[in-house]
Design a protein that fits this description.
The structure holds two protein chains of two kinds. Chain A is mostly helical. Chain A contains four helices and two strands; from the N terminus they run H-H-E-H-E-H. Chain A is elongated and about 65 Å long. The two termini of chain A are about 20 Å apart. By secondary structure, chain B is α+β, with helices and mostly antiparallel strands. Classes of the chains: A mainly alpha, B alpha+beta.
Chain lengths: ~130, ~160
Amino acid sequence: MSINFKNALGLHPDALNVRSKRSEILANNLANSDTPGYKARDLDFKGILKGEYENRQRMELNRTSQRHIPAAAIVMDQSLKFRTPHQPSIDGNTVETNIEQAEFAKNAMDFQSSFTFLNSKFSGLMKAMKSQS
Amino acid sequence: MSLNKIFNIAGSGMNAQTVRLNTTASNMANAQSVSSSIDETYRARKPVFAPMLERYKQGISDEYGYQNPVTSFNPRDVAGEGVQVLGIVESNQELQMRHEPNHPMANEEGYVFYPNVNVVEEMTDMMAASRSFQTNVEVMNTTKQMMQRVLTLGQNG
């Protein structure tokens, strides 16, 4: 019996990936908080997660022989959305620094929790591999 | 890993805010630099910010003529990679012309020209710039913690 890492680790590596991508986008929003005409962007994590589940169910190739290698495409819908500002500013900038800061902190926390899940998956695998004495 | 890019993004933000702070300092220092003609008078300077877009993702060649590969076909899906200072412009607000015949710099009609620096505006600009700078520093700190955390993956299992 072999361990399939994709099944063993579940969604967490992808989640970690999306979190780091999102932190990049939020950092960019914060850096451009004084740029006239800049529109704040963000990723829709819920949408990505939904797309991920649908892809897992849908995007698997049919196998007509037992010896075919199973192939499944995990395609992330990484389309960026524009944020709707609560108070639009006169220079066309839609970055609200406080909201972006809060989102960045939240994203960092979510990153930590995704990381903790991934880490515990690994320690579970390690435990399974160790000899019981 | 995309976490690495955040350092560049926050760094570009800090750089832009430093330029802004620099122009503010220059404006404040020269707020009272009088002269006897319109052309010689100091004018308030302001930096122009613009978002930095990922050129390689749009397949645009860089300054060396190297065509970078296209990695995203939809320009809407391109996140920027920081902020840049396009240049520094001089304010074209009217200069203050004051009648001070006893001033050593006064011209034949007895007028001196004061710069169009609004000190109150410069002070608020300075506060905004230093706040934005702090925000970028915080972003950098948080990212550093995230990266250090990633390095411990699989340890103490």
